[in-house]
């Protein structure tokens, strides 16, 4: 039974270990630990899950050892973990956990022998070990780990992780795949981007092989579909998608999805698909805060055996605050200089080398860029925006682009008109007003469109 001494040691230990890690990591990984037994220098912790043990052992072993030794005043320490099995309130020794956890819903899935579907494989580099947890992604990490650990009977099916570009969605969902693959807890894993998935569905409908394709899908224990925002505007395949997801779900396949936006904010996404997704867990990743950015820079440079001083790390973390892909871009740039000139990177040097990157990013937003983004968003070729085409679809996209140019840039309506195939400035003002009016009356569709495009703009520029 838990005694007073255990509680006291637990308190002291938690205070001490705070010196070694940041508050977020503490709250997620250390706070839930309970000391259930102390036997001289043997300490037994109760933890919520096996994922938890793996993570702590991997990341905080030293911090754990040092804090405990200091609190107990001993030189050696042996740590044991017990898993608090929520389901039946028993406590299971970690060593035996694999045998003791009942194997729910054995599926006896056949290995797929259909090789005609070209599968994009998981990137083995993306694991939980090299993913920095911090403010903004902790919920996503914990849910991903939960699913990874309980792949055959997870409570979160589907798991959907959404958020802006370059924030680690692909990394996290791949980490689930790699984890279950390494643990051997799932054999058949499928990772697809949504456009390939939709293509396969469309082709199989065309060739009358959709049932066969569904049978193929349910041989998988885990299906990861990346970037499902592309499901939108594929109206015909959405109904089939809905049925396919149901079929996989009913056959106990775990589905993991990523998206740039919350399903509610995906324009033209089928309502039934939305509610299907909501039956699982939807969780987001947000841009990392300063401390997390610094930790990521440290990790990414160390992976290259590239030692950066703390000053330089903080300089990058302060100045590049968009997403992780941009942080990586900055490191690559500095590394290039370092490895070619063999000179240490100082803050002054970093400033000089990255200035270009930051300035060029800042100045990238211009009329042409907005036209690119709008054309990509509506899937309308850019030159149609500039021509005289007056179909309703093109006219709307053009008006949206003009509105964004007027509100996001300092350009005059005359200059904007010129960049739209030589139109009058009054045409630009008129289009802008029309969109503004729709926003004023809170037209839901237009509000959505503008918000989504602004999101893309903000993520691709400073
Ligand atoms: P997304 O799919 O959200 O656009 P990615 O998963 O492709 O983003 O991540 C972009 C890059 O940033 C990848 O190289 C990934 O390893 C890295 N990355 C993102 N978040 C983290 C993190 N928290 N820790 C370590 N690396 C990260
Ligand atoms: Mg991605």
Give a structural overview.
The protein is an alpha/beta fold. The protein has four domains: 4-96, DnaA, N-terminal domain (GMP Synthetase, Chain A, domain 3); 138-284, P-loop containing nucleotide triphosphate hydrolases (Rossmann fold), CATH 3.40.50; 290-362, Helicase, Ruva Protein, domain 3, CATH 1.10.8.60; 367-460, DnaA protein, C-terminal DNA-binding domain (Chromosomal Replication Initiator Protein Dnaa, Chain: A). 55% of the residues lie in helices and 10% in strands. The protein is built from 20 helices and nine strands. The protein has helices spanning 4-17, 23-30, 50-72, 97-100, 138-149, 169-183, 194-206, 210-217, 235-250, 271-278, 290-303, 310-319, 324-341, 347-362, 367-378, 382-386, 392-408, 413-419, 425-440, 444-460, and strands spanning 34-39, 42-47, 78-85, 90-93, 159-162, 189-193, 222-226, 254-259, 281-284. The N and C termini lie far apart (56 Å). The chain binds adenosine-5'-diphosphate and magnesium ion. The site of magnesium ion has 4 residues, from helix 6.
Secondary-structure blueprint:
Elements: H1 4-17, H2 23-30, E1 34-39, E2 42-47, H3 50-72, E3 78-85, E4 90-93, H4 97-100, H5 138-149, E5 159-162, H6 169-183, E6 189-193, H7 194-206, H8 210-217, E7 222-226, H9 235-250, E8 254-259, H10 271-278, E9 281-284, H11 290-303, H12 310-319, H13 324-341, H14 347-362, H15 367-378, H16 382-386, H17 392-408, H18 413-419, H19 425-440, H20 444-460
Parallel strand pairs: 2-3, 5-8, 5-9, 6-7, 7-8
Antiparallel strand pairs: 1-2, 3-4
This protein binds adenosine-5'-diphosphate (ADP) and magnesium ion.
Magnesium ion binds next to helix 6.
């Amino acid at each position: 039974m838990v005694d007073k001494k255990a509680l006291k040691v637990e308190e002291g230990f938690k205070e001490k270990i705070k010196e070694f890690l940041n508050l977020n990591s503490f709250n997620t990984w250390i706070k839930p630990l309970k000391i259930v037994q102390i036997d001289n220098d043997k300490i037994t912790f109760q933890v919520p899950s096996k994922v938890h043990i793996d993570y702590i052992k991997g990341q905080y072993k030293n911090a754990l050892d040092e804090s405990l030794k200091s609190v107990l005043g001993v030189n050696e320490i042996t740590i044991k973990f017990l898993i608090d099995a929520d389901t039946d309130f028993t406590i299971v020794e970690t060593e035996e956990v694999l045998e003791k956890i009942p194997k729910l819903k054995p599926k006896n899935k056949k290995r797929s022998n259909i090789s005609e579907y070209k599968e994009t494989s998981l990137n083995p580099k993306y694991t939980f070990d090299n993913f920095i947890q911090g403010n903004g992604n902790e919920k996503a990490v914990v849910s991903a780990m939960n699913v990874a650990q309980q792949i055959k009977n997870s409570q979160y099916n589907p798991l959907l992780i959404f958020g802006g570009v370059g924030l680690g969605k692909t990394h996290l969902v791949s980490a689930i795949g790699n984890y279950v693959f390494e643990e051997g807890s799932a054999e058949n894993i499928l990772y697809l981007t949504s456009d390939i998935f939709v293509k396969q569905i469309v082709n199989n409908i065309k060739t009358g092989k959709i049932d066969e394709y569904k049978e193929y899908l349910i041989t998988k224990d885990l299906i990861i579909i990346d970037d499902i925002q592309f499901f939108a505007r594929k109206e015909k395949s959405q109904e089939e998608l809905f049925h396919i997801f149901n079929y996989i779900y009913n056959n106990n396949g775990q589905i993991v999805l990523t998206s740039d936006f919350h399903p509610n904010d995906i324009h033209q996404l089928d309502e039934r698909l939305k509610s299907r997704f909501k039956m699982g867990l939807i969780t987001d990743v947000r841009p990392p805060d300063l401390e997390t950015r610094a930790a990521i820079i440290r990790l990414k440079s160390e992976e290259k055996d590239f030692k950066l001083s703390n000053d330089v790390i903080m300089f990058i973390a302060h100045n590049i605050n968009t997403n992780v892909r941009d942080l990586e871009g900055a490191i690559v740039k500095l590394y290039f200089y370092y490895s070619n000139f063999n000179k240490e990177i100082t803050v002054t040097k970093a400033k000089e080398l990255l200035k270009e990157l930051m300035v060029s990013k800042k100045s990238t937003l211009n009329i042409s860029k907005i036209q690119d983004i709008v054309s990509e968003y509506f899937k309308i070729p850019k030159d149609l925006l500039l021509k005289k085409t007056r179909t309703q679809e093109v006219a709307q996209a053009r008006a949206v682009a003009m509105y964004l140019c007027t509100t996001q840039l300092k350009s005059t309506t005359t200059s904007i008109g010129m960049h739209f195939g030589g139109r009058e400035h009054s045409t630009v003002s008129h289009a802008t007003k029309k969109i503004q009016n729709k926003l004023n009356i809170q037209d839901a569709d237009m509000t959505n469109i503008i918000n989504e495009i602004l999101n893309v703009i903000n993520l691709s520029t400073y």
